[in-house]
Give the backbone structure.
Amino acid sequence: MRIDLFLLPGSVGEHRLAGKTLVLIDVLRASTTICQALKAGARAIIPVEEPDQAAEMRQKIGAENSLLAGERQGIKIENFKLGNSPKEYTEEVVRDKTIILTTTNGTRAYTKAPPSRLIITGALVNISAIAHQVAQTGKDAVILCAGSEGDFSIEDALCGGMLVHKLESDHQLSLQLNDAASLALLLYRSNSRALAETIARGEHGRCLIELGFAEDVALASQADAIPVVPILRDQRIILEDNS
């Protein structure tokens, strides 16, 4: 199996994704929040790029069973029901609702998704579940890190490296890696005993902690805390077992 990892979404052409399994990673926080929302019973998450697109989508699908959610620079968008903190996505709030989500980094990566065969939302909180899913497909895969406003994010690379590690170690797969995947694997193996500390010290982690989201950073650093497999189907992210 070949694994290509890209440290930023802008660095990958659509031809590199065609027919492959695609794992989209935004550890802080979109991927973690999507996992939490689905675990809490949300019907689906619709990722969009901009707040005005979110509002238009809500009008299109109906306001009664949908919620606007998202952030810019870490802060909840004005007049939106939810931000991008997984703590907000409780069963009481999101069960049976469709969440229309726009974030600074993570949801933009879904614009790269259409040429891919299977699109999975990946994070540390569901790392073993997505490793199993990728291994089961038997297809070449692309790991796409969201980054932070066009810059490298250490937490996304760590997560991508952990996924590669699990495919090799837990699933005993023989992998062909591009250089970025090899780099991410080395980064993970060098920090595997200090994931939470490394992420908290990272640029994005520090920023969120300063904004008051230290608990989000801690949750997002917990491997296998939310063992779900979110997949994108018909522009909606749903649980794998809903298919």
